Amino acid sequence: MLYITAAIRIIYNFIRLTILKLFHFHGVFFRPLQLLSVRTSIDIRGRKSRLVLGNRVSARPGVTLAIRDGSLEIGDNVFFNKGCFITCHDHIKIGNDCLFGPNVIFYDHDHIYGPGKIVNKEKYTTAPVELGKNILIGANSVILRGTKIGDNCVIAAGTVVKGEIPADSIVYQKKELIIRPVVSLEPKGIS
């Protein structure tokens, strides 16, 4: 049964990606062996948009790949768990053998805002995001514009990453759990 399901996903993705290539001829490149869920959303807008999928890219339901005049390159043997979201306005490159927990989010852009600006009418500030090979990113992590992560890194769950992370690193945000007793507040009477 597992092989039948995988075969159906491969055939479905080949047809879906071929149709995408027809509409975005110069912008969609893929290897035939893809294991994307039927409920993986691929949303490509803009004439300069580019999507490159390596071999055996796997995605669970609820994954969204949104490309807006940017370039998204995903290497071989990459796995996206449920709810991962990539929005690409500039360039996002993901190396081979990467693994992403549920709800990992990638942004290569920020809104421009400030006095006299209307946020939903302004353009974006962008910077490329680049991930090396063999990276594990835990659930609910956020990868922001201008981030570069070296090979063989682990990003702990719930971490917000911006900047350069050297290869062979473990990254986490130290969070302290504080437990306090509830203090009862007695109402003060009128004297």
Automatic annotation (TrEMBL):
Which Pfam families did the record assign?
Answer: Hexapep_2
Report the enzyme's class at the first EC level: transferase
Specify whether Metal-binding is a keyword of the entry: no
Q: What is its EC number?
A: 2.3.1.79
Which SUPFAM superfamilies does the entry mention? Trimeric LpxA-like enzymes
Q: Which GO terms describe its cellular component?
A: cytosol
Q: Does the keyword Endoplasmic reticulum apply?
A: no
Q: Which residues form a coiled coil?
A: none
Which family does the entry's similarity section mention? Belongs to the transferase hexapeptide repeat family.
Q: Which PANTHER family match?
A: ACETYLTRANSFERASE C18B11.09C-RELATED (PTHR23416:SF23), SIALIC ACID SYNTHASE-RELATED (PTHR23416)
State the protein's name: Maltose O-acetyltransferase
Instruction: Give the source species.
Output: Methylomusa anaerophila
